[in-house]
Amino acid sequence: MNLILYVLIPIVIAAIAVLFIHPQLVKIALLKSIVDRPNARRLNRKPVPVLGGAGVFFGILLSVSALSFLTDTAILYIIFAAMSLMLYTGIIDDILNIRSTTKFLLQILAVCILMFLGGYKINDLHGLWGIHELPNYVSYPLTVIACVGIINSINLIDGVDGLSSGFGIFTSTLLGVFFLHSGEPTFTILAFATAGAMIPFFMHNVFGRKYKMFIGDGGTLTLGIIFSVFVLEILSLKYEHINIEGIVSFSLAVFSIPVFDTLRVMTTRIAHKKSPFLPDKTHLHHMFIDMGYSHAMTTVHMLSLNIIIIIIWFITEYYTPLSQEVQLYIIVALSVAATTGLYYFTERLKKKYPEKYTQIKRHTQIRQLKHQNIYFKIQHFLDSL
Q1: Count of structural domains, the chain
Q2: Which end of the chain has fewer CB atoms within 10 angstroms, the N or the C?
Q3: Kind and range of the H or E element at 63?
């Protein structure tokens, strides 16, 4: 496939579209008071617009539509229907705070649209534990659990500036390269359009002041359903163009940090007899913020953890004789260590050795000050656009 047509052009079209519409959405959100207001569990100190998801969706849709002459993008109709449902669910939640059970049921409905109208489902484990094709009574519930898990994990990492969008850029680019090498033009375009749409939003979200905006639930739920489709498509492909065995462990590695951090948080809430959807400040990104890291550096550290796990998967896949089952166990162990292990180690350090923890925090804050000049230069440039 032509790299300019299938990679660069989708990114450019989506990025320009979002760059154009983003300031307009900020003005609308401020005019109509569609903002995220500070409270006990929020990290923002003043109201911030939350219509970023609408801009990202617009950029993706425009980019994919503009390139429909290259491939059969009509197969994405059902995907955009599910994305629309998640976008509007999230925007309504951002404005009215709908019940978590209602949002959960609508997520299941979006996955059902993918399964029953689009035919997207986990129907093959590619030989993991000797299992290949799955019967429908296993495939359907497994697909719902996996997709709803991904949707909520992306939704719940949206706690600091740049984290969900940074993860979105990284993941979309990585999977775009995967689809490119797999000979899947339609999903290559969708993946790189998603990455392109996230870039201008990420810049304004992290560095902007005049046009700063949160992606909101509308954006994270939309990203979640896109990533769910990517996983379903990956697990349904026949790998004639690339040599890969541990495809299940690869899919898990890509989403390791958000998925396992969400599992830890929800399991802890249930253990304390609380709703798994009850908001709190026990996520991994809250730990980094408490240690004195900025939002940007928190994003860098969490993405770095995820990248390390993917690199280790790559090594086990291509440079060791390990079976795909062992690969999966390694990825699970690393993911638990990087989320649960790291979180509770830090909590123990803070409680048992408060002086050492304070020293680490002070050192972290001093390092942050060294990067402020670069931060303000980027902020000035974005606000001048």
Answers
A1: 1
A2: C
A3: helix 52-66
